[in-house]
C-alpha cells in the first residue's frame, strides 16, 4: 500500500470540521475518550485495535483506568494524512 | 471463595424476571448478543472477559462474526447460582 | 475481494500436512487450544481476533476458561479454502 | 480492600531485585515490552488487562504498534506499594 500524502495545514483544518471530537496537537490528531470504567474502556480499545489492524494503521495511545488518549499521525508521511482521518471516523462510530 | 448454592427451579424463575434478555436452556442461563460487526462484537467480548475475570466466574461462549452466544452456569455447583445472575446483570450493563 | 475457490478433498489433505495442529471435522478446519488460564486464553483470542479482522476472515470459535475451540471454513465458498489454511498458519505463529 | 502502605525507598530497592525486567522511574515501576507485531502486543495487553481488573489495580500504559510501556504505582497510596510488585510479577509470567 502506498503511503498517503501528508496533508497541508489548510487541508487538515478543513477535515477537522468533520471530526469534532478530535483536535490537532503537536502534529497529531488527538482525542481523549472516557468510559464508565476500565472494563468498558478496554472493550473500546479492543474494537479500536481490530479496526486499526484491518487498516494497517495504528494509534499511539495510552490508557489509565477509564480514560484512553489517542494520537493519530502517519509516521511514514511525517505528518497527518487521510488515513488518520479515516481511522478517526471509524473510531467515532464505536458505541 | 465458597461455591454458592445451586438455585432451585423456582428461584431461577423468580430471578429470570430481572434479566429479560436471558433465557433458561439446557441448565444454563443463555443470551445471544448481536453487534454491528466483528470489531464491535469482540470489543463487547473483551469487556465481558474483564468482568468475568474479576468475578472469577467465566462464561461458556461462542462467537461468529457479529454474534456472541453466552451460556452461564456454575460447574462446581452443578447448576445455576447467584453468581450467574450477577454476571448476567453486569453483562447487561455494557453498551 | 473475490471469494477463493473451495478446495477439493485431495487439496485439503495435502494442505493439512502443513498444519499438524489442525484436523478436518464436519467440513471445517479445527484446532483446540489450551492455555494456562483464562487471562492467557483471552490474550490469545485477542491476537487471533486482530489477525482475523485484518484478513476479513473470521473464525467460528468458542471458549471455556483456558480452552479455545476454533473452526475455520469459508461460508461464501461452501467449504474450506486457502483463506482458512492461511488463517490457520497465522494462528499457529502466535505464542 | 484497604489501600496498602507506600513502600520506602529501601523496601522498593529490595523488591526490585525480584523483578529484573522493571525499573524505578519518576516514582513508578516501569517496564517496556516489545512483541513481534501489533497483534501480539495487543494480545499481551488483553492478558494484562484481565489480570489488572481481577486485582482491581490498573496500569498507566501506552502502546505504539509492537511496543507497550507500562507504569505501575498506587495513586491512593501516593507511591509504590506491594500491589505494584504483585501486578509486575503476574505480568512477567505472561508469554
Summarize, please.
4 copies of one chain form a homotetramer. Chain A is α+β, with helices and mostly antiparallel strands.
Secondary structure topology:
Four copies of one chain form a homotetramer.
Chain A: H1 9-16, E1 23-25, E2 28-34, H2 38-55, E3 60-64, E4 67-72, H3 82-92
Helix pairs in contact in A: 2-3
Task: State the strand order across the main sheet of chain A.
Answer: 1-2-4-3
Radius of gyration of chain A (Å): 13 Å
Which protein chains make the most extensive interface, counting residues with beta carbons within 8 Å of the other chain's beta carbons?
Answer: A-D, 16 and 16 residues
Q: Care to count the β-strands of chain A?
A: 4
The coarse silhouette of chain A is globular
Unreliable runs of chain A: none
The quaternary state of the protein chains shown equals homotetramer
Helix content of chain A: 25-40%
Whole-number average pLDDT of chain A?
Answer: 96
Walk me through this protein's architecture.
The structure is a homotetramer of 95-residue chains. Chain A is 39% helix and 22% strand. By secondary structure, the first copy, chain A, is an alpha+beta fold. Chain A has a 4-stranded antiparallel β-sheet with strand order 1-2-4-3, with helices on one face. In chain A, strand 1 (23-25) and strand 2 form a beta hairpin. In chain A, helix 2 (38-55) packs antiparallel against helix 3. Chain A binds chain D through residues 38-39, 42, 45-46, 49, 52-53, 58-65, and chain D through 38-39, 42, 45-46, 49, 52-53, 58-65. Strand 3 (60-64) of chain A pairs antiparallel with strand 3 (60-64) of chain D.
Amino acid at each position: 500500500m502506498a503511503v498517503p500524502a501528508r496533508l497541508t495545514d489548510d487541508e487538515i483544518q478543513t477535515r477537522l470540521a468533520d471530526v469534532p471530537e478530535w483536535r490537532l496537537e503537536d502534529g497529531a490528531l488527538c482525542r481523549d475518550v472516557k468510559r464508565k470504567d476500565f472494563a468498558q474502556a478496554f472493550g473500546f480499545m479492543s474494537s479500536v485495535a481490530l479496526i486499526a489492524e484491518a487498516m494497517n494503521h495504528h494509534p499511539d495511545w495510552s490508557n489509565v483506568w477509564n480514560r484512553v488518549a489517542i494520537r493519530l499521525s502517519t509516521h511514514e508521511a511525517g505528518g497527518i494524512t487521510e488515513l488518520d482521518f479515516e481511522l478517526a471516523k471509524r473510531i467515532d462510530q464505536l458505541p
